[in-house]
């Protein structure tokens, strides 16, 4: 590849690394063409981006983007999954795909500029999605208020029930 194309590729990768909420480096050696096609289809359907990259170019792009600590993971074949909306989505996709195809392996990941190893990526992939976490937080915050509203409403309900029973008794 001519030098200008390499420079453009490094710029493109550095831009993606800077903008991505979550990034996963994947080893995919031993994948069949059908499996690779299925992986790319799943990546596109999730709104993610997947690129097969040269390790030297990715190292330079990481240096430009201010990401350090990737060097030990830049060996063998490397594919990069970029997630721009949800930082956990790329890790979850790789974990789900790995259940079907054992050849795919998450080497490392980058979330908020921090490089995470394979074990950390497995833990991150097991986390619920952002929307589920926000719903759980909202439920946790709402529970005491709901309980308080029920407790405040209980005496009024009991009074209304008692008055209704008294009215039914006096009518009979």
Number of helices: 6
What is the element string, with H for helices and E for strands?
A: HEHEHEHEEHH
Top-tier CATH class of the largest domain: Alpha Beta
Instruction: Give the neighbour order of strands across the main sheet.
Output: 2-3-1-4-5
Provide the gyration radius in Å.
26 Å
Query: Main sheet, how many strands, which sense, barrel?
Result: 5 strands, antiparallel
Number of domains: 2
Shape designation: elongated
Instruction: Using the 3D structure, state the CATH architecture of the largest domain.
Output: 2-Layer Sandwich
CATH fold-level assignment of the largest domain: Alpha-Beta Plaits
**Whole-number mean pLDDT:** 87
> Which class of secondary structure composition applies to the elements?
alpha+beta
Q: Which bin fits the share of residues in helices?
A: 55-70%
Number of strand elements: 5
Q: Overview of this structure, please?
A:
The chain contains six helices and five strands. The mean pLDDT is 87. Helix 1 crosses helix 3. It has a five-stranded antiparallel β-sheet. It is α+β, with helices and mostly antiparallel strands. It starts with a helix and ends with a helix. It has two domains: 3-127, 2-Layer Sandwich (Alpha-Beta Plaits), CATH 3.30.70.1730; 129-172. It is 60% helix and 16% strand.
